[in-house]
Amino acid sequence: MVVDEALSRRLAGRHGQPEEQLAAALTSREIDVVRALARGCANKEIATELGIGVRTVESYVSALLAKLGVRSRTEATLYAIEHHLVRPRSVE
What we know:
The protein is mainly α. It has 6 helices and no strands.
């Protein structure tokens, strides 16, 4: 996987917290949500999969982005890959 150098530096420098603390700060439900994001699921799909409302998923996504110090679902996915919360799909 190729990651833009500027994005990589930004992901590495989130809020000055050590990476381990950020990963440990995620709840099990937030990890479920970020894993679904990494699979490319829309909020409605995540809601159905987890048995929660779409607005609840939106709240989890917003909280995740804030906790991780990222701006997008894509950056949250990159974080999850870097911290082995998900495995990157191989392109065949």
